[in-house]
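We were asked to recover a plausible sequence for a given structure. The inputs and outputs are reproduced exactly as logged, with field labels preserved.

PROBLEM: sequence recovery
POSITIONS: 210
GIVEN STRUCTURE:
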């Protein structure tokens, strides 16, 4: 089990590094701009991991009180993943006045999509899982949509289209497959719907405020 968990963590780490590298390689931005964008995305990812640890503590609070180190042995489950996403979104909302959110999203989106594709590709190579092949194809389509529309739409409009596309595709897979995973974490129907509604509401709010 420990070996399997280590392999899973290594796969996620490699996928994210690949996403960062490919973005740096193909982005038309200047070196200074790309460096700043990668620093912001890396900071977001690091904080996301911290939020997952916080989620583990919250979900295993009674164990944490008795033996804090024991919580380290608990693998982060889907609920910890959900908590990390919620906290990360609220952090972005809080920081939007101090950062150029559209520019940040234009960097975060391709990195996450490419990393998702790489993760599913590596999972398919390891397990020859048909569902990984389906997910890999799905994220390849999303990457293609992003790079096709990137120069034609604003970052927020593009984010909304990709959010809607991801939600529709994920819902289709949810009802046609036994399970749907994102970086190895199980996605539930309520989370998919709430994630769509919450992000859509935030985008509409930001646009109206501007």
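RECOVERED SEQUENCE:
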């Amino acid at each position: 089990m420990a070996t399997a968990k280590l392999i899973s963590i290594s796969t996620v780490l490699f996928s994210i590094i690949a996403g960062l590298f490919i973005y740096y390689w193909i982005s038309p931005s200047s070196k200074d701009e790309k460096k700043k964008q990668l620093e912001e995305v890396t900071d977001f990812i690091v904080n996301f991991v911290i939020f997952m640890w916080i989620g583990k503590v919250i979900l295993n609070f009674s164990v944490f009180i008795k033996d804090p180190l024991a919580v380290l042995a608990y693998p982060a489950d889907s609920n910890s993943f959900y908590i990390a996403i919620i906290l990360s979104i609220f952090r972005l909302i809080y920081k939007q006045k101090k950062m150029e959110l559209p520019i940040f999203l234009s960097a975060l989106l391709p990195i996450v999509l490419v990393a998702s594709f790489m993760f599913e590709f590596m999972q398919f190579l390891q397990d020859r899982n048909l569902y990984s092949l389906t997910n890999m194809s799905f994220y390849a389509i999303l990457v293609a949509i992003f790079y096709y529309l990137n120069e034609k739409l604003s970052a927020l409009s593009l984010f909304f289209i990709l959010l809607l596309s991801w939600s529709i595709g994920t819902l289709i897979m949810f009802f046609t497959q036994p399970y749907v995973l994102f970086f190895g974490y199980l996605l539930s129907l309520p989370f998919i719907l709430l994630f769509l509604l919450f992000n859509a509401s935030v985008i509409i709010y930001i646009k109206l405020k501007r």
